[in-house]
Amino acid sequence: QVQLVESGGGLVQAGGSLRLSCAASGSIFSINTMGWYRQAPGKQRELVARITRSSSTTYADFVKGRFTISRDNVKNTVILQMSSLKPEDTAVYFCNADAISTARSYLDVWGQGTLVTVSS
User: Fold this and answer.
1) Coil, strand or helix: which one is 54?
2) pLDDT per residue over 98-117, tens digit each?
3) Quick one: pLDDT at residue 51?
4) How many C-beta atoms lie closer than 10 Å to residue 37's C-beta?
5) 61-78 as b/e, with b when 16 or more CB fall inside 10 Å?
6) 3-state SS string over 64-118?
7) DSSP code at position 62
8) Residue 20 CB coordination number (10 Å)
9) Burial of 15 (0-12, 13-18, 19+ CB in 10 A)
10) Is 17 helix (H, G, I), strand (E, B) or coil?
């Protein structure tokens, strides 16, 4: 019904930057909150940042001042600009969206994940 596709992960040195993108497609009526989560090996998935449709943002303490989340409501995309990356930022990053389908179903949608590796 609604799909999310992430892109932009990769390998970067500590102190570097990466830009993650996520695009929603399918039978979309509306998308409310969009966000980025991450999961490191052996750890639980955790919130990185999220943004409402009106662009109100929430950030995890460990990324404040380093990461910026933004979205385009027309294109149904969300961007995570990451800078001053640290080795502990290494994880699989997942895009998430609270969507309403054209059938008026409320959906909690996840992307397939994109790997970010930060070398020291």
Assistant:
1) coil
2) 999 999 999 999 999 999 99
3) 98
4) 21
5) eebeeebbbebeeeebbb
6) CCCEEEEEECCCCEEEEEECCCCHHHCEEEEEEEEEEECCCCEEEEECCCEEEEE
7) G
8) 24
9) exposed
10) coil
